[in-house]
Design goal:
3-stranded mixed β-sheet; alpha+beta
Length: 113
């Protein structure tokens, strides 16, 4: 009895087998790229925590093929340092930033209740 689907086992050859090999190679490359991005994001977290900033309030997440940086930092200088480190670690990737500078100055007037 013949196989109407055209089953190709391990010994398959020809154009269809070559196309399957190309798809598998492409899938392996995409998986490697995703792992590379995850590694780079983890390295960014390590640098933010370890360097002079000691910044743990910034999160970097992979969202829809881009990196989203979110969080709150104590000063504009700290924000600039975070962005500089992110540019170094994530060069060539799309990065969206939503890093807020916390207002830490004294109030200039009394709060009215």
């Amino acid at each position: 009895m013949s196989d109407p689907v055209g089953h190709q086992g391990p010994a398959a050859s020809g154009p269809a087998a070559a196309a399957g090999d190309a798809d598998r190679a492409s899938g392996a490359q995409n998986a490697e790229t995703t792992e590379n991005v995850e590694y780079r994001v983890a390295h960014l977290h390590d640098r933010l925590a370890a360097e002079e900033l000691g910044e743990l309030g910034v999160r970097a997440e992979i969202r829809a093929g881009a990196i989203a940086l979110t969080g709150t930092v104590p000063s504009a200088g700290c924000r600039e340092s975070v962005l500089r480190i992110a540019r170094e670690e994530l060069a060539g990737l799309t990065v969206h930033t939503d890093i807020v500078v916390a207002e830490t100055t004294r109030p200039d007037h009394a709060e009215e209740l």
